Structure formats: C-alpha cells, structure tokens
C-alpha cells in the first residue's frame, strides 16, 4: 500500500503543481526569507549521520532558488548557519562549513543568481569567509535574483553591528554623540544592516515544524508574514513552496498593526 501511495504521488504531484503555477496570484512576495531547518532530525529519521543530513539539505537549495525564479521572486535570504551554531562541536561544525562552502561555490559557478553573504564573517574561519566573499565577487555582475547567504548570522548580532557601524561613521565624520542621538532614526539603522538597500522580507518560511524566528532577520521581519511547514528541510518540495506562496497571497496584510 505504501508503494502504491508513493507511486500515486509521483504521478499526481506534478499535475497539482502545474495547476498551482497556472493559478499563481498577482500579489507575490518580493523578498522571501527561508529558515532551512531540520537537517539533523531528517538524518536521524533516515538512520544516517548528521553530515549526510546537511548534504541532503544543501542539495535542496538549488531547486528552491529555481522555484523562486519560476514565480518571479526578486530577493531570497537563506539562513544556513546561525551564530549559535558556531558553538557546535568541532567534529560537526567543520564538515558543515565545508558543505556550506561547496554549496555556495556551486551556486556561484552557475552564474544564475547574485550572491551576497550576510552575517558576522569575522566569526567564521578565514577559509570559509574567503569562499563566501569570492562567491559574491564572481556573481557581482549577474543580472539575476539576489540571494543573501546568511552564514554566521544572528539577528541580535546584526543590530549590534549596525549600531557599531553607525557610531564609527559618525565619529569619522566628526559628529558628536549628542548630535547623533538627536538625529538617529529607524532609517539610519536600516542603512547599516547587512541587507541595506534591500526590501524587507514579505514572507518568512521555516521548515521542520518549529514555530519561532530564533533570531532570523529580527529587524527586517517586523511586518513579514510567516509560514511554518512541517517537512524537514531536505524533504521540502516544490508543492510545499507553492503552498507557502498561495497562503501568503490569501492573507490580508496588516503590516504589523
């Protein structure tokens, strides 16, 4: 019976997906943030080691970006590694950083998307930071979807870095703390975030069934819509993505009110 169900899904899902694509609404999100969660739990569920789960998750990144291209998304932010994840045992962290580096290199080599690292790169090993910067340089002239690669990223750290950058800039221009305190506003802080110049995410998707932000785009997601999917990230399918887009389009956005 299980084999019959799997066979039916293989036949019916492409038809269902094609129907959903034909009926895509006009009010699509411009920027999507994705929390790629559940690699380790997926690996445990299938009886494999953690590195296998991370590799399976990395393999699902390109399909996601392709789906985003299909419906016309302009910006995607992928949360691949948090600042908290940097405290994991070295035996797990080193292979994970290598898998992330390989995945980013592969995306850059295709030259389909413009890659932009976001995160505290100074907290990463020098080789990982250099790979991320090199991928950004190789795709800087690509006229395609902007993909923020969040590695060593934490929302609180980003806001702290933004304030630090703002203070440094003021000091270099001769602005006193009193003058800065009088003039500082939301836009000034936004202009010093990792995502400066980009639209805030309209939709944030988190896989694995967890229903919390965990520090992802804390500042930028103040008015975002959220979609939580039960599937672990390696199992996240095109139909899951299309359902998230449809759910977003069916909501009446109140923009934080």
How would you describe this protein?
With 257 residues, the chain is α/β, with parallel strands linked by helices. The chain has a domain at 27-154 and 201-250: 3-Layer(aba) Sandwich (Undecaprenyl pyrophosphate synthetase). Helix content is 49%, strand content 13%. It contains 10 helices and 6 strands, in the order αβαααβαβαβαααββα. A 6-stranded parallel sheet has the order 3-4-2-1-5-6, with helices on both faces.
Element layout with pairings:
Layout: H1 2-22, E1 31-35, H2 39-45, H3 50-59, H4 61-71, E2 75-82, H5 90-110, E3 114-118, H6 126-138, E4 146-153, H7 155-172, H8 177-183, H9 186-190, E5 203-206, E6 225-228, H10 238-250
Parallel strand pairs: 1-2, 1-5, 2-4, 3-4, 5-6
Helix pairs in contact: 1-10, 2-3, 3-5, 5-6
State the strand order across the main sheet: 3-4-2-1-5-6
Supply the CATH architecture of one domain.
Answer: 3-Layer(aba) Sandwich
Low-confidence stretches: none
Please tell me the overall pLDDT: 92
How far apart, in Å, are the first and last alpha carbons? 48 Å
In helices, the fraction of residues equals: 40-55%
> Radius of gyration, rounded?
20 Å
Which structural class is indicated by helix and strand composition? alpha/beta
* Gross morphology: globular
Instruction: Look at the structure and give the CATH class of one domain.
Output: Alpha Beta
CATH homology superfamily name of one domain: Decaprenyl diphosphate synthase-like
């Amino acid at each position: 019976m299980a084999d019959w169900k799997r066979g039916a899904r293989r036949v019916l899902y492409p038809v269902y997906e094609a129907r959903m694509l034909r009926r895509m609404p006009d009010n699509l999100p411009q920027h999507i943030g994705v929390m790629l969660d559940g690699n380790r739990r997926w690996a445990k569920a299938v009886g494999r080691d953690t590195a296998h789960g991370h590799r399976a998750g990395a393999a699902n990144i390109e399909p996601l970006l392709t789906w985003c291209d299909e419906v016309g998304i302009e910006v995607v932010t992928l949360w691949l590694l948090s600042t908290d994840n940097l405290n994991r045992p070295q035996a797990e962290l080193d292979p994970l950083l290598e898998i992330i580096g390989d995945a980013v290199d592969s995306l850059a080599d295709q030259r389909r998307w413009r890659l932009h690292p976001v995160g505290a790169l100074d907290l990463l090993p020098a080789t990982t930071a250099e790979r991320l910067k090199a991928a950004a340089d190789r795709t800087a002239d690509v006229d395609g979807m902007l993909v923020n690669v969040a590695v060593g990223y934490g929302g609180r750290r980003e806001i702290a870095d933004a304030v630090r950058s703002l203070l440094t800039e003021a000091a270099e221009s001769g602005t006193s703390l009193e003058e800065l305190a009088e003039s500082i506003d939301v836009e000034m802080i936004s202009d010093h975030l990792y995502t400066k110049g980009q639209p805030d995410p309209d939709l944030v998707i988190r896989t694995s069934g967890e229903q919390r932000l965990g520090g992802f785009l804390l500042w930028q997601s103040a008015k975002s819509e959220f979609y939580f999917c039960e599937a672990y990230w390696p199992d996240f399918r095109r139909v899951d993505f299309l359902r998230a887009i449809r759910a977003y389009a069916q909501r009446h956005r109140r923009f934080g009110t």
